[in-house]
Amino acid sequence: MARNLPPLNALKAFEAAARHESFTAAAAELNVTHAAISRHIRALEGGLAIKLFLRTGRGVVLTEGGKNYAADVTRAFDLLAAATENASGRRRRRRQQLTVSVESSFAALWLVPRLGRFTAANSEIELIVESTDRLADFARNEADVGIRYGRGVWSNVAADLLARTHMAPVCSPALLRTANVRSPRDLPPGLLLQEEPRRYWKEWLQAAGVAERVSPEGPTLGLHLTISAAEAGQGFALADEVIAGDALVGGRLVRPFDVAIESYAYYFVRAAERKESRAMAALHAWLKSEIADTLDAVARVTRASSSAFSDKT
User: What dihedral do alpha carbons 29, 128, 132, 290 form, nearest 10°?
Assistant: First the structure.
């Protein structure tokens, strides 16, 4: 008996769009254009004579009919995938994709150099790192989880503390020897490297009690670029122990002062209503352990360098 089936490409487009509730994400997964996904969905809706998605100002949402159809289509694709694996004579273990949204500075300076350890220990997880300074919108499935830096207050987000940090000036050892900086009041305004969004220096200078005396006049760069500039002896950057950790441990940067901003921390975040999956839990535990190791290593070297600097002054 002949089966009445829609085109396979239309079904694939619908199943991906339904899973993500996003035409954009479906297009990225299937490596086609957004217009192609829209065209397939319209054709499928016309053939079925039902509405599968409602278009809203924030994207698309499944109708009740769409939800029911998506559940059946997904099960059918799962059965096809299993049948194909059985026919090939090998059952491959599925790798679970996990998309994590992180700030560019955290990704470049801390996460990427350590990713090999996570993937080696969690071969069943395919980690997709999206480096962006814009907060991911979990309601639109822009990411599964994220790592955010702040005070831990975000709407509609479950935020689990990874580590509290201390933000303080860092500079190259060579600059510290030549700049004649013995206290915060000696900081040259033109050598204060400003990070976007240019709020941290103001907070730190107030904490150090020199906000009326010292005002940053150095160039404004992305946070990871201020670290590179500081390593090159171009000035003083503000950074916490995680972002500057490897450079501090490697002796490329030092912390000349004990004064620090302590109101910020790193958080592991996800949509408030979403339960933590096994892959999420694995990444969460790994991050907490690795960051703790970084903080321990930095604490040892900063104590030693602070003592040496105090002896000289």
Answer: 170
Q: Compute the distance between CA of residue 150 and CA of residue 108 in angstroms, rounded to an integer.
A: 18
- Give the 3-state secondary structure of 88-150: HCCCCCCCEEEEEEECHHHHHHHHHHHHHHHHHHCCCEEEEEEECCCCCCHHHCCCCEEEEEE
User: Of 168, 127, 145, which is closest to residue 259 (Cα–Cα)?
Assistant: 168
Closest by CA to 139, choosing from 30, 59, 198, 203, is 59
Give me 243's structure tokens. 């972002």
Q: What does the alpha-carbon distance between residue 222 and residue 217 come to, in Å, rounded to a whole number? A: 15
Residue 245's CB is within 10 A of a number of other CB atoms, namely 22
pLDDT given at position 265: 95
pTM of this prediction?
Answer: 0.67
Q: Which helix H or strand E contains 155, and what residues bound it? A: none
Domains of the chain, each with CATH number or no CATH = 8-88 (1.10.10.10), 96-165+265-293 (3.40.190.10), 168-260+299-312 (3.40.190.10)
Longest pairwise C-alpha distance within the chain: 91
Residues in the chain, pLDDT under 50: 309-311, 313
Count H helices, E strands: the chain? 11, 11
